[in-house]
Amino acid sequence: MQIIKIGDIMKKGFTLVEMLAVIVILALLVILVIPAVSNIISNSRTRLYDVQIKNIELAAKNWGAENVGMLPSEEGGSITIYLYNLKMGGFIEDDILDPLSGEEFPNDIQIEITRERNSFKYFVLTDTGTPGGITGYDEIVIILIGATEDTVEINSGFPGVGPDDIVAYAADGTIIANAYISITITENGSPVGSVDVTGFNDYEILYEVNFGGKSASVERTLEVVDTTPPELIVPPETTISAAECNAPYDLETDILVSDNSGSYNLEINGSLNCTAPSTNVIEYVATDASDNETIRERTIYVE
Predict the structure, then answer these.
(1) What is the pLDDT of residue 4?
(2) Could you tell me the fold of the domain covering 231-302?
(3) Which helix (H) or strand (E) segment is 136 a member of?
(4) Beta-carbon neighbour count of residue 276 at 10 Å?
């Protein structure tokens, strides 16, 4: 019987085929493992990012608790503050990092506070802010009354744009007078004197504060829109005689329509059966140029 010694096998080493097999196996492991590790790292950063956003929201809530007088008092009202507002008040650390970029969150990232159903909603507008951060906000603090992207109804009682749209604080906490606030209004890139709410226009508004050798600014966009449906007043029930019906009866009688845009279209669906007695249901549809719609029904009895 032939005896094979282990030492003899060890001296032979690996064959070329065996080496290639090991290399292939290692390559497959790399292909499988690296994406998995990358996904784990990416998911971890995303989770950390969400945590940081929640931290900013919490800081904004704490800011709101100490600045109740600044919070909107009307349903749907909003104000916009900035990350530097929270830093200035000590509500969040100065060097809060964005895990996705590895850099600090921009000082001018916006937080919108909106009143909804007698409570307040806090939204961190993650697509705002200047990459790399903005410095120079350590002495003047601006709070925008309203949203940075706001709308106003056409032909509404809009009071116009003015210095009262913002509240600016000096380093010592005192409110900066309106005399130190300048406003530039542009429409499609061209300077204009005011916001015209009689037409569907878009405006860019820049509020600048210059006080004590320091300056700060905030931008706002304002779009004139029509989201209000026409007002349509229709008597729920009307009784007429067969003679009145055959006159013929004008289905727009006693119908009142108006719209804030100044124009509307009234569509009437249905017809009258003038053979007495009959019950007729007529539908009225008022639509404005922005496709806002109001529908009412009216029952007309023919006796």
Answers:
(1) 47
(2) Immunoglobulin-like (2.60.40)
(3) none
(4) 13
Q: What is the CB neighbour count within 10 angstroms for residue 47?
A: 11
Of the candidates 101, 119, 102, 120, the one whose C-alpha atom is nearest the C-alpha of residue 111 is 120
Residue 257's contacts (CB-CB under 8 Å, 6 or more residues apart) are: 230, 231, 232, 233, 264, 266, 286
Q: Do domains 46-225 and 231-302 have the same CATH topology?
A: yes
Instruction: Using a pLDDT cut of 90, give the percent of the chain over it.
Output: 53
Question: What SS3 state is found at 82?
Answer: strand
In the chain, alpha helices (H) = 6-12, 16-66, 83-88, 242-246
User: 3-class DSSP state for residue 195?
Assistant: coil
Give pLDDT tens digits for 142-201. Answer: 889 888 889 999 999 898 999 999 998 887 778 899 999 999 999 988 999 999 999 999
Note the pTM of the prediction, 2 decimals: 0.67
CATH code: domain 46-225 is: 2.60.40.10
Per-residue pLDDT tens for 213-233?
888 888 899 999 999 999 999
> What six digits make up the tokens of 173?
């906490």
Judge whether residue 64 has pLDDT over 60. Answer: yes
pLDDT number for residue 9: 45
Length of the chain: 303
Domain boundaries, the chain: 46-225, 231-302
- E strands in the chain: 78-82, 110-116, 119-125, 141-145, 149-153, 166-169, 181-187, 190-192, 202-211, 214-225, 231-233, 237-240, 256-258, 265-269, 278-287, 293-302
| Assigned token pair, 88 | 């200035």
| Buried-exposed string 151-172: b where 16+ CB fall within 10 A, e elsewhere | ebebbeeeeebebebbbbbbee
What is the spatial distance between Cα 72 and Cα 49, in angstroms, rounded to a whole number?
28
User: Can you read off the two tokens belonging to residue 270?
Assistant: 């249905």
Residues linked to residue 33 through DSSP beta bridges, in sequence order = none
Q: Residue 73 in contact with residue 46, Cβ under 8 Å?
A: no
